[in-house]
Amino acid sequence: MAEVEIYTRALCGYCLRAKRLLNDKGVPFTEHDATYDTSLRNEMIKKAHGQMTYPQIFIDGRHIGGCDDLFALDRAGKLDPLLQA
Questions:
Q1: Alpha-carbon separation of residue 16 from 4, 65, 84 (angstroms)
Q2: Is 40 helix (H, G, I), strand (E, B) or coil?
Q3: What's this model's pTM, rounded to 2 decimal places?
Q4: Quick check: 84 and 3 in contact, CB under 8 A?
């Protein structure tokens, strides 16, 4: 199973949707709640090449993007192969 990391913040509907999709697929993930932690937010922005919106998702260190990007990969049938790597 691939290593999945997701940077989130409190009260973020997109974060909840992304986590729900991963949970529904039975994918374990590491959540970094950057709501009150500017060092985590800065880490996320650096890893995501300047992207500042939440969530930011990484699979095996590869930047996937946000919630919409995760769902687009799923609709295209490309998410499951990434998660199985």
A1: 15, 15, 22
A2: helix
A3: 0.95
A4: no
24-54 residue pLDDT tens = 999 999 999 999 999 999 999 999 999 999 9
Amino acid present at 59: I
For residues 49, 50, 51 and 54, what is the CA-based torsion angle, rounded to 10 degrees?
100
Give the pairing type, strands 62-65 and 56-59: antiparallel
What domains are there in the chain, each with its CATH number?
A: 4-84 (3.40.30.10)
Give Dmax (Cα) for the chain: 35
- The DSSP call for residue 71 is H
Using the 8-state DSSP alphabet, how is residue 35 labeled? Answer: S
The residue type of 1 is: M
